[in-house]
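yo

u said u wanted the structure for the complex thing, so here. seqs first:
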Amino acid sequence: MSNVKGDVAVDVAVLEQALPNAGLVADANLASYAVKGAQPLVVARPDSIEGMVSVLTSASRLGAGVIPWGGGTRMGLGNAPSRYHVALDVQGLHRVVEHRPADLTVTVEAGCTVQTLQDTLRESGQYLPIDPALPAQATIGGVLAMGTGGPLSTAFGLPRDLVIGMQAVLADGSMVKNGGIVVKNVTGYAMDRLYIGSMGTLAVITEATFKVTPLPRAEATVSASFGSVADAVSVCNAVAAQGLPLLAAEVLNHVACTRAGLGGNTGMYQLFLRVAGRSSAVTRSVDACASACRDHGAETVTSMDDATSAAIWKNVADIGWESEPPALALRMLGTPAQGAELMALAGHDPDVSATLSATRGVVQASWASDATPDDVAGYIAGLRSSASAMGAQVVVESQSLLEGVDAWGPVPDGFAVMRQLKEQYDPQGLLNPGRYVGGL
Amino acid sequence: MVEKTWKVGVSAFQGQDAPQEEDLYSCVHCGLCLNACPTYVETGLETESPRGRIALMKAVFEGRIGLEQGVINHWDACLQCRACEAVCPSGVPYGRLMEQTQAQVKRQRPGSMFGRIGSWVAYKQLLPNLGQLKLLVRVLRMYQQSGIRRLVHATRILQLLPGIGEAEASLPDLSKPFFDAKGQVHLARGTRKHRVALLSGCVMPLVHGPTMDAAVRVLTRNGCEVVVPADQGCCGALNTHGGERDAARDMARRNIDTFLGAGVDAVVTASAGCGASMKEYDVLLCDDPAYADKATRFSEMVQDITEFLASLPVESPKTPLNVQVTYQDSCHLAHAQRLTAPPRTVLGAIPGLELVEMEHSDRCCGAGGAYQLTQREMSGQLRTHKLEDAIATGAKIIATANPGCMMQMELGAKQAGVAIKVCHVVDLLDEAYRGEGA
Amino acid sequence: MEPLIKELRQALGRRYVMQQPEELLVYEYDGSVERAAPQIVAVPADTEQVSQVVSVARKHGVSVVPRGAGTGLSGGAIPAMGGILMPLTRMNRIIEIDAEQRMALVEPGVVNIDISKAAEPFGLRYAPDPSSQKACTIGGNVAENAGGPHCLAYGVTTNHVLGMETVLADGSVIWVGGRQHESIGYDLRGVLIGSEGTLAVTTKVAVRLQSLPELVTTMLAIFQGEDEASAAVSAIIASGIVPAAIEMMDKLTIQAVEPAIHAGYPADAGAVLLVEVEGLRESVVEEAVEVQEICRASGATEVRVADDPAERERLWAGRKTALGALGRLAPSYYLLDGVVPRTRVMDALRRIREISEEYGLPIANVFHAGDGNLHPCILFDERIEDEKRRSKEAGGAILRACIELGGALSGEHGVGLEKQEYMDLCFSEADLEAMARLNPGFGSGETFNPGKIFPTGATCVELLQHPAITRLGLDAFV
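structre next:
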């Protein structure tokens, strides 16, 4: 990354002078914007796109390191910043710009919380099928910057699959957009795909347009207890093969169950299958799911109605983040066939809360602050070596700085291109410097 | 008249039988034909695709290139199976375009002395004069049956003549009895419901004589009186495909006169290629004032034997024929005549017969009339793939509806060393009828 | 040129490096109205050969244009600046179908429908179904981010591709995405899909497969006019039903289709709507009833319903042969791909009617009504210079109208050569600048498919100076 000349000259006074109109937050609690122990010099919270452009233009001129902030629920992701001058809080841009119910599309600013957006959409009987943890705090911009999926990704794909248009501000302060408000669009490069999941290292996402979905008329959840993860995964495969309207399929270890308030017996794995659609279809799907569970030797099978079902999934989405971000969390990424094996790897620790997105091969594991493994670095190195042998990755999320642990592990194929892209879009290395994959 | 400025030179297509502008430009190069074309599927090359071949015709028409050998080679690689025509959303008359293009080539680029003599013998002597063809086949049969063949093989003399050895090896089995068209009339079994004429054809009566006999029996069993006029000749399909349209016209006129004079309800053929060709006599003779109307009337009377039987409807044999059969769609039935259901209807009428469909049943087997001789390599590839698809069904019998396909697949089975029997759809129906009451 | 040819032949063999005029001529077009001939056609058989072609081309400073079956409608596969055209049609193996992980690994030259055919025995299919699915290749689909009628419910190519093996401009081979549903690092996969072959060459594709629906019901509703049909579309969407497909044909299309296939459309029919619902038997049955009720309430004079494959095929026949049937009305057609918000379809059709009158050319509409993806089809005669010019101008007017209605230039065909000069209607200089930085980001320079997507005022002049023109003569290109 290019070395910014005059880095030392970036101080509070310079910043305050350079950013007078950009919504600098007076008397900001800088500690609450700390990232892995590093604190910013100032906090900017612009309430307009112009303000956003102004902050980034000035920061770029000064060579100031900028870390975009949404609801702050996932700031433990990534490495420690190599430079951190400005905390750019995007929550000043929090409007639902336009919901077009008849078009099934919505345009929303990045700082809008997931909950606010869902509440707006629900008034028209619609929703955006994403379900991150802590939706009342998590922002749309944050969800997109992360790019990862939740339980609903089983049916709807990753957040990127729902985006049809995007506005963002590049590191040099230029405002750019792509896509639009139509559900099908191949006009020009899909720049949004580049920004989504880039953790704000290429551009700051300021607005996105999504395609939304009608709320299902009915839903239900089937839950069953298995002695092995593999059995639970087999049930999911069997259910998927029948073409049932499966919205989500998660396997929880007993710690996760307990923390979500969903019961759970030591040594057992609880499978939750969420189906939705017309009530006739839901009834039939519940029967089919229950029978698949029994065919695979499930000990108990219960099915739950509409209201109970929705409540369960709110809890499942929050696992590990019940009230606040966990001290340590791992996200293990494999193929769908590797899910059970990854779950077994993670589950060695008796204190870990672990969930597997069964048709997607993604395991989320977390530890409460008083229960993290003693030798975290050694523990993660061991996991990574097993995962690497399978071709899987382990992403580490932690609130504090973990010595000797890279958040991302080995760089992926195509990393040379990623570095070139970073050079193109953020040549000074100002956005989230050093925090992303391979130190980008 | 609005000026059209797209032509950049003088078209090398000249005179009679030139591809027509409306036909050429009905192709909007959408490419939907590609995957239907056997040579494109084999090579993956646009040069060997219907769209590419039409593009070359357009380029010649527009005066951008001449009738050079490099261009002609790509047209010659076309099987004229017309699978592209059947899937074309714009209704491009590909078969007509290619026949006319070949006629232009034949007239303007007669080729080498050797090739000219060969095509003169084939198109101007043997096919129009079936007596000569029969004589030739008799000689070949003698060669196969006497000790000469063994002697030839023992001396390896064929190795001295490149290409001839392979041709010799791919000769069909000529041991079967010939079928003769000598004006015979076969009476209907039971009440006569129809009177039909049967086309004897050129190669079929000599190579698949027993199938022709089966055709007669099957028709009479279904209440038809069958006449086999003596004055009929070859349908001229090979001449048309080879660009010899004038020779084909003479042959067409002779058949029209013969069959229209036979006082029949329909002209039936057991050869899909002949049926396709005769159904298009109206196009071939549209510029002949004396024959245009007669040709239209004749073409409307022509029916493939499976088409005719299925329309009766065909009588189910009373005794089952317990066999597994896979059906190969003959191109000139499936694509040129768009008949895929009738042969299956006929097979379906046979109790006990189980039809197991093969993959790509409507992809050309590579026979393509003279193609087997002129495009040996491609023909061989297609034959191999066809046999693979057929063998994969597990059926021990391949049924089809055209003599060229039968010979090609018999050769394929021989090469693959598998005991799979090749026959015509009517052979199976006939076998089932013959088992009745047994 | 000679050393270049020699090196290519060493890599691919003599037969698969072509440069005769008649060989280049058949590679100067795709499914669009544009054309330009390459200088060389090189047809590789595997990833290594692709890499070799790219390296040799780079060494000699020649560009490479990847090509699938050449069915595209925006000129994406046309070598606008000459150079090497590289069809990937020989790379057509289905390498693996993994039924349990619901994934297929295929080479780029595999024909779209062949993936579904191979997956069918496992009860699976590949969802995106462009109208050319019987001929177009998955590599081309990836390059253009292709759609199709059934993308209404399931999304387009990018939503179904897990990853690709890719050859970069320096000849190196990388995987972007893969069998995993989530991976770390920038989503290079998502950027390359729809990049129209300008950044890299796809040599293998891992696609997601989905279960075949238990029941499919197709409904064909006949309306007096387009407005009633459009209202029905809105009402269906508003009811909360998301059909697998909603397709519309206008009066002119109906008049072209009826003589071709004798579907039995009434002579006075003003619009035909095809609606398909699929999924679990219970919901399909209920949804089908509701859709029929909505259509009738919106003014449908007749609704035909089918749920067995042969009958459904018959209802679809008119839609599937529509373009061909329109091809019978005129020697050429210019098929556009503008898209508007689904609630503005009615306005868009009205504007298209006005444009048709203004430019004196018939324009038929057969399109994906459910997602607002219009396919206005301008009928003209390419041999008449004035008609050709008017068709292009009318096309421009339609695209402008789509933008004004809040839409975009292309829903599924891509920008290519066709729409590059209209890009500034949608995008600011900064937007285009940001897009242009992908090129150095991927290190592709002028290596892949130059002269596409971005507006270039200079295209014509550059083309005239191009060596391929001097070789074949200017007339070969116009």
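Chain C touches chain B through 46 residues (CB under 8 Å). The first helix of chain C runs from residue 2 to 12.
cya
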